[in-house]
Amino acid sequence: MAAPISHGHVLVEGFTVVPVRYSAKSKAGHCLYLKSHNVQGQDGFKPRERTLFILNVPSYCTEACLKRVFSPCGKVLNVYIHDKPTSGPSPPKISKFFPLTTESLGFKVAYIVFKDVGSVQKACQLPYKTPLILSTPETPLLTGMRKWCADYAARQVDIGELQTEVSNYMEKFESRMEQEKEEAKEAEGVPDAEGWVTVTRHTKNKAAVKFAVGEHRHRGRKRKKEKDIASFYSFQLRESKREHIATLRKKFEEDKQRIALMKAARKFKPY
Amino acid sequence: MKRMKEITLLSNKDLERPGVLISPEQSDEDGLEGDEDDEMVSDSPHNYNEEDLGRSVNANDNDEEEGKCTPTIGKRKVNGQMVNAATTTKRLETGHDASEPLAKNPRVDKKALYKIPTNEEVNQLKETENLFHSSLFRLQITELLKEVKLKDKKCQEITDKIKSLQELCSSVPPGNPYEISDQSWLQKKKGKISIVQHPHEVKGQFQFFPPKKLQICGSFHHETCIKPNASVDVFVEMPMECFQPKDYLNHRYLRKRALYLAVLATYLSKQDSVTHLQYTYHHGNSLKPILLVKYKGQCVRIHLHVGAETGAFKLNRFHICKNNVRCQWFTQQTTGESDVINQPATPLYNTSILQDLTVQDNLQCGSQSAGIRDGICLLKVWLRQRELHMDIGGFSGHIMSMYVWYLLLKRKLHTLMSSYQVMRNTLLNLSQCNWTKEGISLRRGTSDGKCPAMAEFHAAFETVFVDVTGYVNLCAKMTRTVFHRVKHEAELAITMLENGNVDSFDMLFMTPVPFFRKFDHIFHLSHIEELANCVEKLGLQDRLMDCGGNYVDTCLSSILSIVSEALGQRVKLIQMAGIPAQQWSISEEAPIHGYGDKITVGLLLNTDFSNSILDKGPSADSEEAKEFREFWGKKSELRRFQDGSICEAVVWLPATSTISKRRLVCSKIIQYILNSQLGIEKDIKYMGGQLDCLLQPQLPEMEGVPAYGTGEEQHITVIQTFDGLCKILRSLDGLPLAIITIQGVCPVFRFTEVFPAIPERFKTSARKQATRELPLSEKACPFYTPVLKVLCVLETSGKWPEDLEAIRRLKAAFYIKLGETLRKDHSLPVLVNTDHIDVLKTGFVFRISIGYMREITLHKTTRTPDGLVKVKDTEMSQEVEQEIVALPKLTSTLHGVHQRYNAYSGTARLAKRWLSSQLMSDYISDEAVDLIVTSLFLCSHPFTPPSSFLVGFSRFLQLLSTFNWKISPLMINLNEDFTKEDYIDIPSKFTKERSTLPLMYISTPQDKFKSHWTRKSPSAPILQRLVLLARESLQVIQTELMSGGQIDVKQIFRPPLGIYDVVLHLRCKQLSRPHQAVDCPSELNPPELDYNRENDVFPVTDFDPVQLFLAELRTIYEDFALFFYDKYGGSVIGVLWKPSAMQQKEFTVSSLKGRMPTLNEETVHLKTNTEAILEDFRIMGGGLVTRVETKR
Fold first, then answer.
1. What local confidence, expressed as pLDDT, does residue B1166 receive?
2. Domain range holding A129?
3. Are residues A131 and A25 both part of a single domain?
4. Distance from the B492 Cα atom to the nearest Cα atom in chain A, whole angstroms
5. How far apart are CA B117 and CA B128, in angstroms?
6. Do A242 and A143 share a domain, yes or no?
7. CATH number listed for the domain at residues B519-613+652-688
8. In whole angstroms, what is the distance from residue B1110 CA to residue B1118 CA?
9. Strand (E) or helix (H) holding A242
10. Given Cys at both, which of B262, B591, B609, B732 links B191, Cβ 3.0 to 4.6 Å?
């Protein structure tokens, strides 16, 4: 399929290709792939008509930067940047100190929510020839040495704040555990709809933890093998000797094969 | 059912043997035998099926008849009938199991397994068990012998050639008589005499008569010749007519011999079928030239020896205590009285002639037994792999076969023995004898009683092995050192054979043991022509005459004994490297000695003593003190020792010297002693510390700071500081849980950190903020301060929650508490973080974290929706396990290895330095390298554990370049915790699951099946590249070592940049450790000490911009490229595009990342946006990258 070029913008498989440059001095840059966010199911955060879906966002791009770059198309209400296409907003940050996921680098996807419906269309018609500039002297993006120095400085934590957070969390955690315990206690001995009684670890007579099929752990309680007296009967002796010859033969065969392998690898030329 | 079976069996038995009760002893005996057999049978599957049955029963009948010749039937006869019945029952029982999978190998037919063995087969199986190490060993030997022995067809060809040679030689027309010194006739024939004529004048006449016969002797005669470079010794008998009565005197015989050879050589040179004609000295003996002949289309060389007919001279004439070279003649003093009585004996000269005269007598020493012959072949291969077969300074195959013959005579060997037994017994005997003190003799009682006594032999020669006639010492030219080397190798071989866990076949016969990898230190004596001056200094004029003017031969053993006396206990072994004797064309002058241009001597260090800076001599007033003073000259001084004694002593270094200097004490000693005793000064090239410079950072000498040698002292300082910290941590009060274990987990704690942390503070550009310093982007990067990771384990408590998130928080709370206590009670500066706490102690930053074992299980456990618990290894659980279980264990074990072998640390560090300088260090983990290096020490076969960095490092390269990771696991027996079963289980599991296991599979007793440290990397292409690099580097080191330091070793630490697609050049100012670079950038200013810096302010820690840059690059462009960097001060990053990234792709949403559409083509594809990515490199490395160079 040839790339239909009309009105200066490039459209490939429904995506508008918009080149970006890091700064005005850059000679090359990546391409953003723009498309109107058009998925089944309505979601309050990314309304269907007003949301622009962007692929291949360079790692140093920030929300503010995207907001600035796309504001000529219309007023931007919200910008979301994700690792991969997601519905809804980014997961809320539960904790300042203990993030659940590490911030990942790499190319990302972004959703831009405009105020007006027409803005998405406008964005999709951005020309191919004029690249967008991401970092300007007034609003620079932090990269390289400056970023690393800033990161280093931000590494220190406020002990007081940390202490408070930990205490709060633990309090909540403990009360939650307590509650669970209570609930379990209440549920004790009460048969469910089908008449089964759940036995928990709080039960007086502790039942074994249920393991999934095949997950039975060996507890090192191997049953002692019954010691049978070998060669009690003379046929056993004879049998064992026959077996012995068989093992020798088997080993011999195996060795022969190993040798053949080694021979193939020319392993017997000593020098 | 089981019961039923037993009953059936019993009844059967009772029926067959009515009234026979089993006495207790009998059953006991049964039990014993049964046990033995049971063990062997245990893993063989019991597989029978109905079909087999009939045959087997019959088979048993036959078995009984053949019982007598079948060893497996055993001592006690059994009733055939009974057995039949019983086994039948059993088979019916077990028949149901037939569906069970058979052994791994479906090709082994079980019918074949259980058929009746033929007599021959039984014998063979039995033989294998009794006569060989294992059946595999036997098969390997057979294959090896096939490879090295000459084929029958070839032998026939050679015999034919020699017949034709005989005809040729006997057709040479007899010559005219000439004076020996008149050789103009030979020059007319364009021939050259192959011996140094010093002095030229000698009485006597020479006339050529064709030889009566040619005799094949040596290895070809005994059929113990081995390929490649096989040679056939042919002895040409000079007829009696050639000789005159006094020919034994003054080299006359030798001259005649050489002239005779020259006539043959000139005659042969006219033959078309002869392609190659050269002289050489037989075993480097410059008195005895031989002719090398090669026929057209033949690869086998014929060694043409010339000698007198048997009986030409009386053997007693050449008694080793007699003189046959007159001083007056040799020194050309015409004035002196010819005093026959006071002439010095000429043992070497005499022996050289005797060897010719006794050729026939010694020919009988050969055996027709195949086992013996094959055994000799094996021993020769063994010698050859150790470079001991060389002409000069070697242990020839001839001596070896004579020794085997000797052992046969002594009944230590038997003609019925297998080749394996011959080999093993010979080595065993060799390892237990000492020919330098108790020589051995092949002489029989029947020979005449005039031959020299053993004591006389010992007085004249260093090693003694007397031949059949009782006159000739077969080891006349062998120095003591060579014998000791052979003995040492034999000892090693025996320990190897006794240790069932090593592949001894491979180590004995397949692995080369080159000289430079065997010895820890090596030194070269170049310009050996200077040795001519040493003869007088050593007082060896008589010996010079005996050697016929060959001054190198004269001095060599004295030099070696001086060196070995000077080094004393410091070395275990000294040996001169064996060299092949020089060869020269028949139209050239003979060389004065056959040694080439230098002598190489290797030292095997004894690390208990080798580094000591002082040699304590005898007490000042004792007899030996004078000798000591004489030996050491002005270096010897009187010293008072701690125990109050006053002794002579030699001090080599001041007590404050660094360990790196102490390691080279031997070099100092050799330099000194050779200079003071022989006047050799400049010509000594000592190879020992050539690579030390790579472990030295480019730091200026600083006042008040201990000197930086190669980092040993710095390691110790770190560990001492750490011990102090441990003490504090253990004694802390007021913690919710006490700390019970504290372990360092960084390489520095196992002494393998390439550049250990130093506590000094340098002037820095960093900005101070409260209690710590921060880097500034516009200023130069501050000096790198690493963090030293420490893992603590707390006492057990039931109060830990069963939730990972909660555990994380509790740990943080613990860090806060710990920080508080450390700050308040011990006034240590601390920085608390969520997952660790940094403590600053005397300039070092320790990063303490807590390991909680339960976390591993929690990571493994998942709960299915219906409430079931599943335990399964996950990525996370493996990582945690590695971090808190495997790593501390490994660190402490390797610390132990370091304490046992003091070259371990240096070898590991050099290995890592090399990997890093080749930009590979990020693709193979530190721990994996440490482990591989450990294997060089714990399983050093066929060597001894290395005692110097240099040899350790070259063995590391050797291992890396030759180890076959594809088919074998690297098993490292840490703490010798592997059991015998492990040696079977691990390889078999490895073979079975090869495809799912890591490429580099390292197994230790602590980590048998997971191979923690090579789980993720290296990948196949990286490993391949490593192998290539290692091979190249090894080559360079080898040339360097053997050439005597004429090339720059550092070149193997400079990576070739040509292979990379893109090279990113970095700004030197922003490198945090430029002083560690192989070639320190010149524009760099050396760091300066800052005496005013506050000690309680945290320096910029663990901040290396390049590493941060790389981490970003690697995560973002994972799919596109690989990044290579030398973490020790490298100033470039190499980038290789992945082949998959360079291909055009279909336009799909999933492959849009980093790609751009091709707009000019018919169909739109996606291609990698290389330009933009290169631009990204510049952007993301802002301030660090100066230039992006595209190579391709």
1. 85
2. 5-154
3. yes
4. 19
5. 15
6. no
7. 3.30.70
8. 11
9. helix A234-264
10. B262
Domain B1057-1190, CATH: 3.30.70.3030
With 60 as the cut, is the pLDDT of residue B234 above it?
yes
CA separation for the pair A87, A44 (Å, rounded): 10
Roughly what angle, to the nearest 10 degrees, separates helices B1105-1116 and A144-154? 100
Quick one: A134 and A243 in the same domain? no
Cβ–Cβ below 8 Å for A238 and B83: yes
| Residue range B76-91, pLDDT digits in tens | 333 333 333 333 333 3
Of B143, B816, B871, Cβ closest to residue A263: B143
Which residues from A are below 8 Å from B384, CB to CB?
270-271
Asked whether residue A68 is assigned to any structural domain, the reply reads yes
Q: Where are the beta strands (DSSP E) in B1025-1172?
A: 1062-1066, 1121-1125, 1132-1137, 1145-1146, 1155-1157, 1165-1168
Q: Using one digit for the tens of pLDDT, what is the confidence trace for B994-1021? A: 888 889 999 999 888 888 888 888 888 8
- Name the residue among A56, A105, A173 with its Cβ closest to that of B803: A173
CATH architecture of B149-363: 2-Layer Sandwich (3.30)
Final residue in a domain of this structure, among A94, A127, A154: A154
Encode B350-375: b = buried (16+ Cβ within 10 Å), e = exposed.
Answer: bbbbbbbbbbbbbbebbbebebbbbb
Q: Smallest CA–CA separation between B142 and chain A, in Å? A: 10
For the B138-144+366-513 domain, the top CATH level (class) is mainly alpha
Q: Is residue A142 located within the same domain as residue A29? A: yes
Label residue B585 by pLDDT band (50, 70, 90).
confident
Q: State how far residue B1121 is from chain A, nearest Cα, in angstroms.
A: 13
Residue A18 forms part of a structural domain: yes
Percent of chain B with pLDDT over 90: 12
Residues of chain B with CATH 3.30.70.3030: 1057-1190
* pLDDT recorded at residue B49: 37
Contact A143 B774 (CB under 8 A): no
Task: Report the C-alpha gap between B791 and B795 in whole angstroms.
Answer: 13
A126 in the same domain as A9 = yes
In-domain check, residue A170? no
Among B614, B528, B517, B626, residue whose Cα is nearest residue B569: B614
Chain A residues in contact with B22 by the CB 8 A cut-off are: 232
Q: Given A118, A134, A154, which residue is the final one in a domain?
A: A154
| Token pair for B119 | 């007599």
Asked if B74 and A59 come within 8 Å (Cβ–Cβ), the reply is no
How far is Cα B881 from Cα B13, in angstroms, rounded to an integer? 58
Task: Let me know whether A17 and A145 are in one domain.
Answer: yes
A98 contacts B777? CB cut-off 8 A: no
Domain count, chain A: 2
pLDDT of residue A224: 52
pLDDT under 70 in chain A at which residues?
A: 1-7, 41-43, 88-94, 101-103, 198-231, 265-268, 271
**Considering only CB atoms, which chain B residues are within 8 Å of A177?**
801
Q: A206 in a domain, yes or no?
A: no
Chain A residues closer than 8 Å to B1157 by CB: 3, 10, 12, 17, 31
CA B687 to CA B415: how far, in whole Å? Answer: 47
d(CA B1156, CA A107): 13
Span B281-314, pLDDT tens digits: 888 788 888 888 888 777 788 888 888 887 778 8
Nearest to A173 among B103, B113, B801 (CB): B801
Residue pLDDT, tens place only, B492-545: 999 988 887 777 888 888 888 888 888 988 888 888 877 878 887 877 777 887
